[in-house]
Design a protein that fits this description.
Fumarase C, Chain B, domain 1, mainly alpha, two-stranded antiparallel ribbon, 20 helices, 4 strands, 2 domains, two-stranded parallel sheet, Fumarase C, Chain A, domain 2
Length: 494
């Protein structure tokens, strides 16, 4: 299929999912191409009619030489400067889906003429999404102001395929399409990861026989928060049909706060989606061209800080932070299930069993030790990302973009959560197994997935490789392109 782009609002989360994750192609509509062409014509007439106009990178040089005025002859030579000297970032290369998202986001400022670029460049960028492998773009080493260290190598090939004209180079390498694509990528993944968290904690609640009243519908309105209400509804949906025989007194704190912690995860995921939606549709470059209106017959060009996205990094940091918190909650649940004095079931830890003895159950008591490592890794990684300084020798580029750092941290913390969810899911699955109980209907497929990688233990065996395969299976679900990101109505904030 093909995503049709008419205006900047067509570059959204749904389009990102289809183009970046499902690898659909893109077509710029005829109306949008006409707008691009008319804006280009107005822009050229503006700079031709008024030779004294000051436009960064067009009638002046760039960077430290921004005060240097260019003659008409110099403008054309300046426009054809190749970007290779700045293509120096390397390491931790972005996944293909993220790079495709950046290319899609780059089209935003073209569609309504704000890039003042030619239709041929807009079409060339769209053609990059026809299925060919993306150029490598590094996530590491991004210490520059704006995103030029990522955008230079991404569009370097275009600069060799075309003799660039005035304004075209800036329309490719300036702005913040990377930040928009990075937060969009995490926002899409967060919806899937959150769904796995709901399933895993519902399974733990059932395995522990926690009172259902902890998740009562009366709390939806009493707590007064739409995200916590969404979490309560999701847990109830997965627990529908749960077995009787539950404890008649309150469960430990870690069980009672699940809807509030997952409520914040729901809130963080929604905030990331909002940041992505706004960012994707508002990308511009510097300077940005404002097409003709009643006051400005030929439009105008203004320099801005539009290449710095201040929404994406806090949204990514909040996701990383809540992933780390949920890692800890997974460990608390596992510890309570493994402790027979608390869980009121056969002691899964099997403390004191002598070597060679067997009572028909394997030992999974070392799970908290492995979980502790992932928890500390998540907590260490999920620290706030501050705006970094940049080239101290520069009089212009003195602040760097933080979004690449924030996205990398969110990704690593999310993988830690996948591992912690896998461990809790196995402990809960084992608890159901040793007490001969079936999971609620909505969780049976999930338990089947867990047991397909880590079957119930009937004797000791090496579990590390099995946990690793389950973790990889959960991560694969997070980044799968086969399912609808809006499929699970239980996550609707309502």
């Amino acid at each position: 299929m093909t995503v049709i782009l008419n205006n900047r609002w067509d570059v959204n989360l749904d389009a990102t999912y289809r183009v970046a994750w499902q690898r659909e192609s893109v077509k710029i509509s005829d109306a949008a191409m006409q707008k691009i062409a008319s804006s280009r014509a107005s822009f050229l007439e503006m700079i031709d009619r008024d030779p004294s106009v000051v436009i960064y990178g067009v009638t002046t040089s760039m960077g430290e030489a921004a005060s240097q005025r260019l003659t008409i002859e110099q403008r054309n030579r300046h426009a054809r400067i190749k970007p290779f000297p700045a293509a120096i970032a390397f390491g931790d290369y972005l996944p293909d889906r993220v790079v495709r998202g950046i290319v899609l986001a780059r089209l935003t400022n073209f569609l309504e003429g704000h890039a003042a670029t030619t239709p041929r460049i807009a079409q060339a960028v769209a053609n990059m999404l026809d299925g060919s492998p993306m150029p490598p773009v590094a996530a590491a080493g991004q210490g520059g102001a704006g995103e030029i260290l990522a955008l230079y190598p991404l569009f370097a090939q275009l600069s060799t395929a075309f003799e660039l004209e005035v304004k075209e180079r800036g329309s490719l390498i300036n702005g913040s399409p990377c930040a928009a694509a990075l937060v969009a990528d995490s926002a899409i993944a967060a919806q899937r990861r959150l769904r796995l968290a709901f399933k895993t904690f519902a399974l733990s609640i059932e395995a522990f026989r926690a009172p259902i009243e902890h998740y009562d519908p009366a709390l939806d309105g009493l707590w007064g928060d739409k995200d916590e209400a969404a979490a309560l509804r999701a847990l109830r949906a997965y627990l529908n049909g749960a077995m009787d025989g539950r404890r008649n007194y309150q469960a430990p704190v870690s069980y009672r706060i699940v809807p509030r912690v997952l409520g914040h995860a729901h809130r963080a995921a929604a905030a990331a989606a909002h940041a992505a939606t706004v960012s994707l549709s508002s990308i511009s470059d510097n300077p940005v061209y404002l097409p003709p209106d009643e006051k400005y017959e030929l439009g105008r060009c203004i320099t801005t800080g539009g290449y710095h996205n201040a929404m994406a990094t806090p949204a990514l940091d909040d996701l990383a932070g809540i992933w780390a918190d949920i890692c800890l909650l997974c460990d608390r649940h596992s510890a309570k299930l493994l402790n027979g004095r608390v869980s009121q079931m056969p002691d899964l830890l099997l403390v004191g069993r002598q070597p060679g003895e067997s009572d028909g159950r394997g030992n999974i008591g070392y799970v908290p030790m492995a979980a502790a490592g992932y928890i500390e890794m998540a907590k260490h990684t999920a620290q706030r990302t501050f705006i970094p300084g940049s080239d101290s020798a520069s009089n212009q580029d003195d602040v760097a973009t933080p979004t690449f750092l924030a996205w990398s941290k969110e990704q690593r913390t999310g993988r830690c959560l996948d591992a912690c969810l896998a461990m809790l899911a196995v402990v809960a699955s084992q608890a159901l197994y040793v007490t001969d109980r079936a999971p609620p209907p909505a969780l049976r497929e999930f338990v089947g997935l867990v047991r397909s990688h880590v079957p119930p233990l009937v004797e000791d065996r090496v579990l590390g490789p099995e946990f690793d395969r389950l973790t990889e299976a959960l991560t694969a679900q997070v980044f799968s392109a086969d399912s609808d990101i809006h499929a699970d109505v239980t996550l609707d904030a309502g």
